Amino acid sequence: MSAPAVEARSLTRAFGDFVAVDNISFTVTPGEVFGFLGPNGCGKTTTIRMLCGIIEPTAGDATVLGFDIRREALAIRQRIGYMSQRFALYDDLTPRENITFYAGLYGVPGRERGRRIGSLISSMGLTDIADHRVGDLPSGARQRTAFATAIVHQPPILFLDEPTAAVDPAARRAFWDTIYEIASTGTTVFVTTHFMDEAEYCGRMALMSQGRLIVCDSPARIRASIGAGMREVLCDAPARGLDAIVDQPWVRAATLIGRAIHVLLADEGSDAAIAQALAANGVGVEYIRPTAPTLEDAFVALTSAPAATA
Q: Given a cut of 70, is residue 266 above it in pLDDT?
């Protein structure tokens, strides 16, 4: 069995009295697309910065490609690809010039350099804008350029920190197609996101909340872990309906998904109890029906339970 691409053991990072990452442990298998999911401020970026050798942990340790993040940070940075949500590009340069600059920075050999740059410009859909100033380009084109700079040296592992945060839904979907293409070559992809729907694209994922790792598993198993009892409720006043339900003793978790309320019932809960609580608060019900839990449902349910590591 091959060594993990990433292995974190009790990894912790504090900034003064604030603990941004709190004793998390997980492994990433070579060649997998691994998602790191949670709301803004939960510790995702701090974790990725530790793994990339940018900042040191306060406690615990980790290895990336077998290199220790404390003692061998330079070796890690030389072997990884990294793309931040801010797209580390030079606005006064063109996409071609940005990719060329990073190819030189990573030491791509001269003869090979031209071939890779040309191939990336084509595969990233940058041909028509390759010689335009990056600062004048839309966010989707900037995203594709940043991705090209992160993979021009063909790293065995790629860290993507909120790579789709600044682009529209169509560009997000297209970008994930590109991630799959890269992963199909054997590249390990570690991607952070706060979009629950994006996590479904990952083979495995870790759910983070307030610096702690809640669960680490496949999206399907995480959804299944909260058990049966999920109901979808459509009513005429969703916000007021949620307020009427969320603190009931027979409710494990409840959240708004669009206009519908998703309710995870405890053993003593029932459709009749939901209807009665809504009626008591003057909320009209269109329907109450069983539904499969989403990742957002699972996140809401699991963050009310004690944190665990995996």
A: yes
